[in-house]
Design brief:
With about 200 residues, this protein is α+β, with helices and mostly antiparallel strands. Helices cover about 40% and strands about 20% of the residues. The chain has a 5-stranded antiparallel beta sheet with strand order 3-2-1-4-5, with helices on one face. The chain is globular, with a radius of gyration of 17 Å.
Length: about 200
C-alpha cells in the first residue's frame, strides 16, 4: 500500500497530476478539482496522500492534499453505491469542512452539488456516515475537536474560525489542532482565531 508520495509535480491534466519522486518514475494520481497540488510549481516539493484502488481491469491512485481528505475518501467509498469516482466528485465539489458539515447537519442537498450524486445517494451517505465522523481525525485518530467544530449546538463560531484559518493558508489538520487547544465554548469567531493563532 502506498500511503503517500513525496516529490515534484511534473505534469498536470484535467483530473490528475504526475508526481516524480526522484526514482525516475512518474506516478499518475487522480486528485479532486481545486486540489492545491494543481498550484504546485515544478521546483516545489509536495506530499500527496494516496489510496490505491485495484479492480479487475485497472489499477488507480487517488491523491489528496492532507490526511483528512484521504480519510474522508476512504469513508465515502464504504457507502453502498459510492465508488471512487463519485467520492472524488464529492471532494471536488465540497471542501472537507463542508462535507463534514453536510453530513453532521444531515444536509443531503449539499452533497448533490457533486456531479453524478443524486438525492438517494446523498441521503444514503448522510445515513451511513453521520455517526462515524466523530472518530475521524488526522491519521485516523479520534478527533473530538473536529466534531465540535461542526457541532450545531453552539459551536458555529468555531466552524467559522476553522474556515478562516484555512483561508489564511493553514492546512485543515493544523487549523483543527490549533483550535483544539482553545478553551471555552462561547467565544466569538474572531476570538477563536486570535487564540488559535497563538497555538500555531
Amino acid at each position: 500500500m502506498i500511503y503517500y508520495i513525496k516529490g515534484h509535480v511534473t505534469y498536470k491534466t484535467e483530473r490528475s497530476v504526475i508526481i516524480e519522486n526522484g526514482s525516475g518514475i512518474g506516478f499518475e494520481i487522480q486528485v479532486p478539482a481545486g486540489s492545491r497540488l494543481y498550484l504546485a510549481g515544478p521546483e516545489e516539493e509536495v506530499t500527496c496522500f494516496t489510496e490505491m484502488v485495484v479492480r479487475e481491469d485497472s489499477m488507480s491512485l487517488y491523491g489528496f492534499d492532507d490526511r483528512m481528505s484521504l480519510e474522508l475518501f476512504r469513508r465515502l467509498v464504504t457507502v453502498n453505491g459510492v465508488g471512487s469516482k463519485a467520492a472524488i466528485a464529492i471532494l471536488s465539489a465540497l471542501t472537507p469542512q463542508e462535507l463534514r458539515q453536510a453530513i453532521t447537519y444531515e444536509d443531503a442537498a449539499m452533497l448533490t452539488r457533486a456531479n453524478g450524486v443524486g438525492k438517494k445517494t446523498a441521503q444514503r451517505i448522510v445515513l451511513d456516515l453521520k455517526d462515524k465522523l466523530g472518530t475521524l481525525g488526522e491519521e485516523g485518530a479520534p478527533a473530538p475537536q473536529a466534531a465540535a467544530a461542526v457541532d450545531p449546538s453552539g459551536h458555529a463560531a468555531r466552524a467559522e474560525a476553522l474556515d478562516a484559518l484555512v483561508a489564511l493558508g493553514y492546512s485543515m489538520p493544523e487549523a483543527q489542532g490549533a483550535l483544539a487547544g482553545v478553551a471555552g465554548s462561547d467565544l466569538t469567531a474572531e476570538a477563536y482565531i486570535k487564540e488559535a493563532l497563538k497555538n500555531m
